[in-house]
Specification:
The complex is a heterodimer of chains A (about 290) and B (about 260).
Chain A: H1 14-29, E1 55-62, H2 66-78, E2 84-86, H3 89-93, H4 96-104, E3 108-110, H5 123-127, H6 139-157, E4 163-165, E5 172-173, E6 180-181, H7 183-189, E7 192-194, E8 215-216, H8 222-235, E9 238-243, H9 258-270, E10 275-277, H10 280-290
Parallel strand pairs in A: 1-2, 1-9, 1-10, 2-3, 4-7, 8-9
Antiparallel strand pairs in A: 5-6
Helix pairs in contact in A: 2-9
Chain B: E1 25-32, H1 36-49, E2 54-57, H2 59-62, H3 66-74, E3 78-81, H4 105-123, E4 129-131, E5 138-139, E6 146-147, H5 149-155, E7 158-160, E8 181-182, H6 188-201, E9 204-209, E10 211-213, E11 219-221, H7 222-233, E12 239-241, H8 244-253
Parallel strand pairs in B: 1-2, 1-9, 1-12, 2-3, 4-7, 8-9, 10-11
Antiparallel strand pairs in B: 5-6
Helix pairs in contact in B: 1-7, 6-7
Classes of the chains: A alpha/beta (about 290), B alpha/beta (about 260).
Chain lengths: ~290, ~260
């Protein structure tokens, strides 16, 4: 790695080298004066949701498939539910007018990088020659990719995204002994970073907003959604769902069925005083402001 | 626009990699935490079919069935490192007082060293592969988040993650951060479908289970283990079933030109 040359005097032990690299890299990643408050990095002593609220739900979609626009958004809108959409930029440009309308209605538009780098084990990554594979990426490259997406999205929607979703839910660059986490890059530019696919909901008091988890909700029935939400109610948690399409046939992600999404939205609408359904940015902002160290 | 990035490091000439014995895919069964149902139920099934699996043990739970674990190790099953205290994100209630967000790399390194020492002391063999508790590979939070994959990459032949979506491609995969699919709750057909998908792409699929019983939370169905073993035993299945260490060792033998980092 290039950065190692800058740090040889510190290389007394392996651990020191790792720490020195990590600190050096994360410093160099920080751009002057980000326009948004970065993700809050501490555990709160006290936290409470707004009065009466027992759990919080966010519905999110990755990749801006046309089924999200044509089948998902009308269902969400019919029940007054706002969702977060992490856009594939070239795909979104094909339907830019529609996406602008979605944004204007109050849905959130988030950053999902420009080139969607994932592990080289993914077939789609190898099909494009491995040139965006995370194993060969550096933090500098990833930061450029993320900021390039922010620029594009600012041009498309007039504002810079406040939250990020990790492509494939993966948060690293490099391989083996050279692997680094890119969570610090995300933490420095966004109020929240959303992972994918693990099996927990987020505790608002201590969760790291730079790596909140989303359940992989493609194929979920209404009952599966409800079970996950009931668990979140019991724990006072924030549960995030991530889907890819709405009622698509076949393909890598068949997505969430419109019938099940309709049932979910209708039910969430009826639970409004007890379950807050908000975008990732709204919820992350509330958590950041409400957490207290006292 | 951002510049395109370089080729990924291990990508080899197409077709240069082969699985042993003409197999078209590799399958590893792995089980975490040394739950008692693994010795009481699972090992009996595996041994009946002659399938060798990898057990990522929690050292204290291992002591509850120490004689059975000694026999399992002697029989050729792999015993791997799964830390001493199983630290995960504090979002899990049970891990809030031992949260990865509050960990440092030094503390994690001590976990890895100590778990290896405890296993060696109890079984006389030292683990060579590792399974990340909860599949999580970080310590710290926010801008202070650090990957602990390098610790694993330096100390072990392989590190196994969990609930990741991809199949391990032998030509490019990072042995320090291998993907594994959850096996708990699945019917045998669900597992076999995933193995067939691995076979289509010549991949290595690793499955992770916890308890082995009839049904329940974090339970791999005993009937599923039985059926997969039976299915894999048929040479027509086209799969090579090996422990994580065996398969990782085979892959590494195709990467001789670079010293393991």
């Amino acid at each position: 790695m290039r950065r190692r040359k800058g740090n040889p005097p510190l290389a007394f032990t392996l651990t020191v080298v790792i720490l020195a690299l990590a600190v050096g890299v994360s410093r160099s990643c920080r751009k002057p004066a980000p326009s948004r408050a970065p993700a809050v990095a501490f555990q709160a002593k006290h936290f409470s949701w707004p009065a009466g609220i027992k759990a919080v739900v966010s519905i999110t979609f990755d990749h801006s498939t046309t089924s999200q626009l044509d089948r998902g958004v009308p269902i969400l809108d019919a029940h007054g539910i706002k969702a977060s959409f992490y856009l594939d930029i070239p795909e979104a440009k094909k339907r830019i007018k529609d996406w602008r309308k979605v944004h204007a209605e109050g849905h959130e538009i988030g950053n999902h990088t420009l080139n969607h780098p994932c592990s080289g084990d993914y077939r789609f990554e190898r099909m494009r020659g491995g040139k965006y594979a995370l194993e060969s990426a550096t933090l500098d490259w990833i930061e450029k990719d993320i900021l390039a997406a922010n620029e594009e999205l600012k041009g498309m929607f007039g504002e810079v995204p406040r939250t990020f979703s990790y492509p494939c839910g993966e948060m690293f660059a490099g391989r083996g002994a050279q692997t680094v986490s890119y969570v610090p890059v995300v933490a420095s530019h966004f109020i929240a970073g959303r992972g994918f696919g693990l099996d927990f909901s987020n505790n608002p008091k201590d969760c790291d907003l730079a790596k909140v988890n989303a359940l992989a909700a493609d194929g979920y029935s209404f009952e599966a959604f409800k079970r996950a939400i009931e668990r979140a109610v019991a724990a006072g948690d924030w549960v995030i769902f991530c889907g890819h399409g709405v009622g698509e046939k076949g393909g890598r992600y068949p997505g969430i069925s419109p019938v099940e999404l309709e049932k979910l939205c209708k039910w969430l609408e009826s639970q409004r005083g007890v379950i807050w359904t908000g975008t990732v940015a709204e919820v992350a902002e509330y958590i950041s402001k409400t957490r207290s160290k006292k | 626009m951002v510049p395109q990035y370089m080729e990924i490091r291990w990508m080899q000439k197409e077709g240069s990699f082969v699985w042993p014995g003409g197999a078209r895919a590799a399958v590893s069964l792995s089980f975490d935490d040394a739950r008692t149902s693994q010795t009481d139920t699972c090992l009996k099934i595996l041994d009946f079919y002659g399938v060798k699996a990898t057990f990522y043990v929690s050292p204290d739970r291992m002591l509850e069935r120490i004689e059975q674990w000694k026999k399992a190790a002697a029989d050729g099953h792999e015993i791997g490192n799964h830390t001493v205290t199983h630290p995960c994100t504090g979002n899990f209630d049970w891990s809030r007082r031992n949260a990865l967000e509050d960990f440092t790399l030094e503390k994690m390194e001590a976990e890895l060293v100590e778990a290896n020492r405890l296993v060696k002391e109890a079984l006389g063999i030292e683990p060579v592969t590792f399974a990340y508790p909860c599949g999580q590979t970080f310590v710290g939070r926010g801008e202070g988040t650090r990957s602990y994959v390098p610790l694993v990459g330096k100390k072990f032949l392989a590190g196994r993650a969990y609930m990741t979506e991809f199949l391990n491609n032998p030509e490019v995969c990072d042995l320090a951060q291998l993907s594994s699919a959850a096996m708990d709750g699945l019917a045998s057909m669900d597992v076999i479908t995933q193995i067939q998908k691995a076979r289509d792409s010549g991949s290595w699929v690793i499955f992770t289970g916890h308890e082995v019983a009839d049904k329940g939370f974090q339970v791999t169905r005993a009937a599923t283990v039985e059926k997969i073993c039976e299915w894999m035993r048929d040479p027509a299945s086209g799969v090579w079933s090996g422990t994580v260490a065996e398969v990782a060792g085979h892959i590494l033998s195709f990467r001789p030109q670079v010293t393991k980092v």
